[in-house]
Design goal:
single chain, about 350 residues, alpha/beta, two-stranded antiparallel sheet, 10 helices
């Protein structure tokens, strides 16, 4: 996510209906079953897409629980995951927290959402934060009760990854991509796994490799992603991937975030410089590391859908001829606004503003 995640947390508060946010884990399992032809307990076949046209809708179950409604173009109320499929998405992304106080985004909640996605035939990305709450460039907090040394943290990373993915697999869910860490610009599970110029990334690489091994043990064909924010910042991108590659971190794909209008200074600046820089960086990153690249988070203000659509079109046109560029995920399009004017999303009054139709064309 972006630099100030407290603002993102505030975003959801404003669109809730004022109910208790806590939901028992047992209540998160949807009535719908797994994808037809997929029996729980068997090895689900991987869902493959050549280009992910996706959305991170990690708030979907929480919003539904609070009474938030979504509608298709004809005004018919539609469950959020199903609506993403109607809009043209072929993939969704879900974050995982270890033991969140509210229960949302824990293992059972992720399973509930993944079952909904599986039933729609959507490819699934799992985004491990390895924290009880938001993990991003500003914070990578060790979950409560976890050890603080790298060796034992690596064991916990492996166990947690295996537990969550194993639960999904046992319930017939196919997983196509897995992020080992979220926006790990300077590592994860601080301070033990923090990346600095002096430690050369070795502790972080150990944690990544523990996650990588766990992913491959459960889903051998899933692509493991190491995620860096600020796709427009070549210097920061190169510093990070140079360091972790040298340290021996194992991963299959480069994942990036891009919020072209986020650095606002009281308003929303022109989105074009960041988008132009990002498209140039995609190519430079692929050439430097010979790994596929994906934009796993992209977002624009919902208050100006014309600009959001223009930015999305620019990105799609910029990458359309690159087979190694594997897709774009819009971050939480179902969210709308908050009382402080932080209005990232792609819906208004429960209806699409047209941005997702561009992403998922």
């Amino acid at each position: 996510m972006k630099k100030t995640l407290l603002l993102m947390a505030a975003l959801f508060v404003a669109i809730s209906c004022g109910e208790n946010t806590t939901q028992p884990a047992t209540d998160t399992t949807p009535e719908s079953g797994t994808n037809p032809g997929t029996d729980p307990g068997t090895d689900p076949q991987p869902t493959t897409v050549s280009f992910a046209k996706g959305a991170d809708i990690s708030w979907a179950t929480e919003m539904a629980h609070k009474g938030y409604k979504f509608y298709d173009s004809k005004g018919v109320e539609t469950e959020c995951t199903a609506l993403m499929k109607i809009l043209g998405c072929n993939a969704v992304r879900y974050r995982v927290w270890v033991n969140p106080s509210s229960g949302w985004c824990n293992k059972q909640d992720v399973l509930a959402k993944a079952k909904l996605a599986q039933a729609q035939g959507l490819a699934i990305m799992i985004d491990f934060h390895y924290s009880d709450t938001w993990a991003d460039p500003d914070k990578q907090t060790i979950p409560a009760g976890w050890p603080t040394d790298v060796d034992n943290l690596a064991i916990k990373v492996k166990e947690h990854t295996n537990d969550v993915l194993g639960t999904l697999k046992d319930n017939g869910v196919s997983v196509t991509w897995v992020q080992v860490g979220n926006e790990t610009n300077t590592g994860m599970l601080w301070p033990a796994g923090e990346v600095t110029n002096t430690n050369a990334g070795a502790p972080f690489a150990k944690l990544v490799n523990a996650g990588y091994a766990a992913v491959k043990a459960v889903y051998p064909d899933a692509a493991v992603i190491v995620h860096h924010s600020n796709a427009q910042d070549w210097g920061a991108n190169k510093w990070f991937y140079d360091l972790v590659v040298k340290a021996g971190a194992q991963f299959d794909m480069i994942g990036l975030s891009l919020y072209p209008s986020y650095w606002a200074n009281g308003g929303y600046p022109d989105w074009t410089p960041y988008c132009q820089q990002a498209v140039a960086n995609f190519k430079r990153l692929y050439e430097a590391y010979t790994k596929p690249v994906m934009l796993v988070e992209f977002g624009m203000p919902v208050s100006d859908p014309a600009k959001a659509k223009a930015a999305a079109e620019y990105l799609l046109n910029g990458v359309k001829d690159w087979s190694w560029f594997k897709g774009i995920f819009y971050w939480e399009p179902e969210s709308e606004h908050d009382r402080n004017g932080y209005d990232y999303g792609a819906f208004a009054s429960g209806k699409s503003t047209g941005v997702m139709e561009v992403i998922c064309q």
